[in-house]
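Thought: the user wants the 3D structure for the chain below. I'll pass the sequence to the structure tool as-is, report back what it returns, then summarize two notable features.
Action: structure_tool
Action Input:
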Amino acid sequence: MTPLHDGVDETYGAVYSRHMSALTKTTLYLPEAEYRLLKALARQQTRPAAELVREAIIEYAARHSGRRRPASLGIGRSGRGDLSEKAEELLAGLRSGA
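Observation:
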């Protein structure tokens, strides 16, 4: 265990805070292109790259957890690919009784 002085690891100069105590440190190896993409997204969103990785893991786990979607999800599909572009026109047709 490295000595801490006021939340600073004097061996490595790392700063720890209370919220970090619930996290486990890990190492992640990424291809260079994916690393650059992660860093660019982090800069664009002004968020730490580690936060984006944690969020991505949570979203991936939710999608692949084996939980089924509710049967009602997507029940109102129109089958039309242009619905959002023609919404006003279609709604106007309903109002005029067409």
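Final Answer: Structure generated. The domain at 26-65 is CATH 1.10.1220 (Arc Repressor Mutant). The beta strands are 4-5, 8-9, 14-15.
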